[in-house]
Amino acid sequence: MVVVWDGRVCSCPQGVPPSEKLFIGRNFNGHIGSTTGGYDEVHGGFGFGERNGGGTSLLDFAKAFGLVIANSIFSKRDKHLVTYQNTVAHTQIDYLLLRRRDRGFCKDCKVIPGEILVTWHRLLVMDVGIMVKRRKISARGRPRIREAVREVLGVSTGISGSHKGDWWWNKVVQGKVKAKKEAYRSLVESIGEEERRACIKRYKVARKEAKLAVT
Asked: Do the beta carbons of residue 188 and residue 200 sit within 8 Å?
């Protein structure tokens, strides 16, 4: 099945699988008017100007294929509705359409004043928000992730140590903490002023390194 529009053969919107998002945009050379006028399903009620035969044909086309005209959904100033302007006229003849069931994806649709694509035509844009599903991690990748986590964080034995939360310490952190404990023990057991000063110096260095490793 094909659709003939303005004397040209176009692909049928129904040929696009339902799982795919459908967006149609072009110069339809018709005026849909500023009100719905019996086309509530496809006309959002915020058009521009007076409807003509070309606009009615576009509305019938949208209704037949379950589409909605995006730049009629949102209330805008005239400068954000007019898609074609020259020295003698300003009209709305360019439109963006999408499936009615996907209307919720359309966050905004308007003309960018001053941006001209071709002679006298203004840039019509539509903001669309589509959620992309995340890919699931395959079973093959899970063992590698576990190995990386085990290497970095270590493995809990289920027995609480003397430090709250020390179950996740890896070998590097455990070594720094052990060195700090040994330096403190040496400080406590030190005899003589000179030995004590040396132990204090070693303990301060070990304590600083352990703190950096833990945090």
From this structure: no
